[in-house]
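User: My instructor asked us to take a sequence, write out its structure as C-alpha cells, and then describe one feature of it. I'm not sure where to start. Here is the sequence I was given:
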Amino acid sequence: MSWNILEVVGSIVDVISNTSSGSTRISSASKKDKKKDKYFIEKVSARFILVAAALFFIVFYKPLPVGDQTTALIVSSLIGIALSALLFFLLNLMELYYFKSIFKLLLFSCSVIAFFIALVMCVYYKSGIFI
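Assistant: Let's start with the prediction itself. The C-alpha cells for your sequence are:
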C-alpha cells in the first residue's frame, strides 16, 4: 500500500478551502445563518483532535519497533510541524487564517499541529518503508 503524502495534504487543503469559503457569505447572511456557523472553528478543531487521537492510538497501540525511537519521534514531529506551518502559510495567503479571539487561534493551531504529527507518525510507522 503506497501513500502519497502530497495527495493527502492536497485533499485536506481542498476540504479546508471549500468549507471556509462559506465564511465570505456570512457577512451578508441573516442572524439565523450566523448562529449555525457560530462554532465553526471549534467544530473543525474538535474533528482534527479526534482524528489525531485515533491516529495516535493506532501508532502507539503496539510497542514501537526496535531502533532509535527518540530520533524517529523527534523527526516525525518536526515534519508534522513543518507541514502544519505550510498549511498555515497557505491559509494566510488565501486570507482564511483570521480569528476573532486568541483562544480560537490556539485551539485551531494546536489541533492542526497534533493532526499532522499524528499523520506523519502513522505513515512513518505503519507504512513499513522507513523501518
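For the description part of your assignment, you could build on this observation: The mean pLDDT is 81. Try explaining in your own words what that tells you about the chain.
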